[in-house]
What does this fold into?
Amino acid sequence: MESVDAITGTISSPQEKKYQDVKKGYTFFQEKDVLFAKITPCMQNGKHAIAENLIDSIGFGSTEFHVLRPGDVVLPELLWYFLRQPSLLKKATEHFTGAVGQQRLPEDYLKSLDLPLPPLNEQKRIAAILKEQMAAVDKARKAAEEELKTINALPAAILRKAFNGEL
It folds into this structure.
């Protein structure tokens, strides 16, 4: 779970382990599978990713992932964008099971979702538009983070100048 970046929704820090260390107690997935965190708060926080660039096209991860295998009729990117919608994630919280702090989304909820499914070429067009828009959002987020760093450093810079008699 810690390998999935909640902001970008990517496997940002993959780890290599021996098969004998992951064959039990881990969830198997393969290239282009969509990983969907089922436990709170990871589900709401965006711990969902497309499995890409895997060694030998296979991977193992937390048992707290639902693994969705899109197949040939659904573009993994379109499914991933669909599942990351804030409205969908909010609605999913109404279907949690388990105790507070250890609540999980049952697999049946995902199976019951109606996925609008245009033809594959249209899915590719939609996914390309969404990717472009998300890149613009990511660029803006990074710029805002840099501005925040500058703003947070400002009081220290002012105090330094004041103590040095430069004001």
Observations:
- Residues 1-115 form a domain with the Adenine-n6-DNA-methyltransferase TaqI; Chain A, domain 2 fold (CATH 3.90.220.20).
- The CA atoms of residues 36 and 48 lie 5 Å apart.
